[in-house]
Amino acid sequence: MINFQTSPEHYRHWNLKIDGPVATLSMDVQEDETIAEGYKLKLNSYDLGVDIELADIIQRLRFEHPDVRVVVITSLKPRIFCAGANIYMLGSSSHAFKVNFCKFTNETRCAIEDDSRHSGRRYLAALNGTASGGGYELAVACDEIYLVDDGNSAVSLPEVPLLGVLPGTGGLTRLVDKRKVRRDRADVFSTVAEGLKGKRAKEWGLVDDYFPTSKFQESLEARVRELLAATANLETTEKGIKLSQLDVENTPQGREYQQVSLQLHRDQRYADLVIKGPEAGLPTEPDAIKQLGDRYWPLQAYRELDDALLHLRVNEPEIGLICIQTKGDIKNVLAVDQTLANHRDHWLIREIILNMARVLRRLDLTAKSFFALVTPGSCFAGNLLELVLASDRSYMLDSEDEEVQMAVGELNRGALPMANGLTRLQSRFLATPEMVEEVLQQDARFDTSAAERAGLVTFAPDDLDWDDEIRLAIEERTSLSPDALTGMEASLRFAGPETMDTKIFGRLTAWQNWIFQRPNAVGATGALTNYGKPTQAQFDFKRT
Amino acid sequence: MINFQTSPEHYRHWNLKIDGPVATLSMDVQEDETIAEGYKLKLNSYDLGVDIELADIIQRLRFEHPDVRVVVITSLKPRIFCAGANIYMLGSSSHAFKVNFCKFTNETRCAIEDDSRHSGRRYLAALNGTASGGGYELAVACDEIYLVDDGNSAVSLPEVPLLGVLPGTGGLTRLVDKRKVRRDRADVFSTVAEGLKGKRAKEWGLVDDYFPTSKFQESLEARVRELLAATANLETTEKGIKLSQLDVENTPQGREYQQVSLQLHRDQRYADLVIKGPEAGLPTEPDAIKQLGDRYWPLQAYRELDDALLHLRVNEPEIGLICIQTKGDIKNVLAVDQTLANHRDHWLIREIILNMARVLRRLDLTAKSFFALVTPGSCFAGNLLELVLASDRSYMLDSEDEEVQMAVGELNRGALPMANGLTRLQSRFLATPEMVEEVLQQDARFDTSAAERAGLVTFAPDDLDWDDEIRLAIEERTSLSPDALTGMEASLRFAGPETMDTKIFGRLTAWQNWIFQRPNAVGATGALTNYGKPTQAQFDFKRT
Lengths: 544, 544
Prior knowledge:
By secondary structure, chain A is an alpha/beta fold. Chain A has 22 helices and 20 strands. A seven-stranded mixed sheet of chain A has the order 12-13-14-15-16-17-18, with helices on both faces. In chain A, helix 6 runs antiparallel to helix 20.
């Protein structure tokens, strides 16, 4: 079982040094410390274990080190920054694992950009040696890239010419969409295995600058000082909060967290995911919230939800459907929404909200079906209402005897955007945009018929039909082709505008997934299969 | 060899009746008239041959029947409008063929929307029976959809539940992006094999209205009258021009058209595609151009280019690289650009320009590499400059002795947009948008060094290096994995904004291609393989 939790005392591949407002994050991959058998992590190449640490570091920088304003990512290995994802790991992994590995590394790169965009931390890739493949893709996720000019070090995307696959972590999209490299130059760069060195790399926009070895350190330091001056308005002496390990118990049927419960029905290939709403009387001021730290419900519940989603993706591939439920008091959820909205400019509250948004986007991007089940005692309100809107379908009990309600809250107004930049209400009401404001302005709760009228739920079966209808819906869903569902959900979930993130997860990922099962990549004579072997790849040259 | 040319006297599957400003296009597929062996086209299901006719009809409506303002698409089969792409054809086709078949049908649907958007012709789907799968996707490409309410007829997308694949002709994207169907309803609709009938189909936005059988015809006629009134401003009594069969000679080495020459180097897996520029002294007024008809260079050359591209896609799968060249006088190309720009509001000139734009987009979407070779005697100017900008790379000879030039023209200013809505110059200069105007304002021609400075070419080898550099570039390109190149090019060619078209060709196509090779669809126990057999599909339920 792959564990997505880690903490600084367990890091094996990264060295994090914090010096006031500057964090230096150095990659120093231990080649034997792999997450699976059969390969060595040479030349700062990485597997999922290395990236789990990186994701953890970025998360902790945001919560534990609010005073850090510049993050320098570099390497402790001589002449090599990072060689990208380990090829032998890729070559020996199942299709499903490769796809989920790429998705997680993509989410981690997006988390760097999310930190830069929303929290103002500047990321600087200090390439003290060659950055190839995923190594260069990590650099491109940073705000600025500096390359040493030692006559040897280069940036490169050798996936197409060497491996017959695509750069799998957003590289192609970020080349032309983020760095806006001219498409013909991007074409050349992406087909030249050895990549480009300093002068031309700068001319083509692949790096921001290059410096000779003797001046590399001082030039970087000068740039860091400039960035510190430019981010002086973000200066804070506030200490952060500690992110503890999540308290989770694995049972044969699932996982029990403090606020999240995951019950697996493996025979039927679905899971119940139940989220407890917050208690009453949570603190309403940042100082008191800081005291609570990572036990504050919005942080704890969403961290647990995040871990549960990652667990489901990688460790429970046959679970195809998640039935999302909530238990609690709508009043308390709305109170939390109100508190968070009131203090959204406080650094900790901002980070808590941004984390909730990232977790919800992780859900949007999870290749499982989601049904939201709205029943008596549930608390789909405010931030938790997003779970209904994020689900592929929702069912709300229409009961004569019991109260079943939903409600909008402050965080439905734009604090938790999807990857396409829209709120989930905007995505839902593309045809009738006036409905967004109508729903948001409803102070009263939505009972089942009001929710149906407002277009907030898909179906509203009554007491008599509920059990059968839910059972049938689950049976039907889990009987369908899992691949067709993945492609269908990826197409239906993201209507409307596109962003770099949706391009990476929609277009690039889809092409990569296609190539990841082509014989030209993974067949007996495929390029990925034959990499590093005395044998040569033999292609079927038919263009598709 | 599949022939993409046809004409009304050869139609086997469609009946076109033109009554003044109203064209009625009725599908009446002849089940034995298939383009390949091994299946029958029952229930108005279609194969590539049926769609080649449809594409031809839409093209002819624009050029031959400018007076048509409303097109009603319906069926001559009782109780069935169209059952979509033939499943046995799909099940027995190669992966490459399936992909190219879907691409062509997608382009044909986009051509309907292009006609509606730019030429104002209104398309009305009159579903006199069930429209399922590609049948409903054809309807969704129309402006309006009307369904008969006979207690039986429905609209449906049964691909996911029945076949384990996606609707392959833009259906999912158009559901949520064009018709803006709520994503949870789109989810339900796309997983219910039998689809939805009149009332709910209308309520969910899947059709615009439904009428009982007894009122179907008169209701449609009433709607046609309304549309005619609304498009009265487009009324014309002008006759169209005739589109003749292209004059093409097949040789063992390629195809020779009048303006286009295709030379195949099959051993080296590349082709030279040479386009002759226009002669001097072409007419400058619409009346004289109309006299010339389809022999007018911009129409003839681009129709031939279109046919050559389709031929290359389907009949020459192993050709991976097209070297584009032009031969002619820049002055004459610019004169044509000027004439077209001067009269762009004349219906025929507008159609000629729109056709050029569609052909260039067909090139953008062709899964082959394109290198533009700019040499002495070439005429990459104005509309032909778009070929340089559309290419993955360009090489321009830097000669001391001979004149090598390029030039901008009127049609580079926005008349020939890419699928993403940008001009090719805008796409090229995303990083430096001020360059677009700078280039457009250059009256003088670009010699090689000016073109390089302006960022219009990738490389400019001199006389000494040219032959070797081109040879090496061709050898390198054609040695790479064709699949990785397809995915790479699809990612690099469309930076910047996204539209419904780019979503369909980028995201949806990529997912469909992925699914089209998954064992759950096409393996021995896959759903597509087992459709209509006594055996049942058996899925590997791992989610990816």
